[in-house]
Amino acid sequence: MIKAICPGSFDPVTNGHLDIIERASALFDEVVVVAMTNYKKQGKYAFTAEERAKLLKKVTEGMQNVTVDTYDGLLADYCKEHGISVVVKGLRALSDFDSEFQQALGNRHLNPDLETVFIATRAENMFLNSSLVRQIGELGGDISDFVPGVVLEDITNHLRKD
């Protein structure tokens, strides 16, 4: 049985994130989606880790082999603690590969049993990221094409109240 992790900040979850999660769930026996803390983004999150996990649980409801968690530490340590052997990361562009490759090498150094698998995004999601969704949503724009419908209202209401 192969257990994989889809880590990210998911601030908020987008259709691009959901696509990678769905594709990972078709490839691996068990997938854990973890709302991580990115220390470069500390103090800049629109949603708390618990709010991000709640949104992720809504969008993955019905996916039998997917669970959701939060974590505030090293990804390599989380994987050791939970018996996870594969990290799944989505790639949008060459610039994503550079930083993700460096992270993969660092994680492998910290946990030699950990492999990283990259999944290329679908063309319609290449431009999509959480920062864009936050910016459009906070300014009152329509984000319905960018986030899963089941959490559209939650995300819209949260971003507009801030």
Explain how this protein is built.
The protein is of the alpha/beta class and 162 residues long. The chain has a single domain, classed as HUPs (Rossmann fold). It is built from 6 helices and 5 strands; from the N terminus they run βαβαβαβαβαα. A 5-stranded parallel β-sheet has the order 3-2-1-4-5, sandwiched between helices. Helix 4 (94-110) links the parallel strand 4 (86-91) and strand 5 (115-120). It starts with a strand and ends with a helix. The mean pLDDT is 94.
What oligomerization state is this entry in? single chain
- For the record, the CATH class is Alpha Beta
Give the CATH superfamily. Answer: HUPs
- Tell me the helix content: 40-55%
Distinct helical segment count: 6
The count of β-strands is 5
The outline comes out as globular
Uncertain residue segments: none
Helix and strand composition category? alpha/beta
Overall residue-averaged pLDDT value: 94
**Into how many domains do the coordinates divide?**
1
What is the gyration radius calculated from CA atoms?
A: 15 Å
As for the CATH topology, it is: Rossmann fold
Instruction: Name the strands of the widest sheet in spatial order.
Output: 3-2-1-4-5
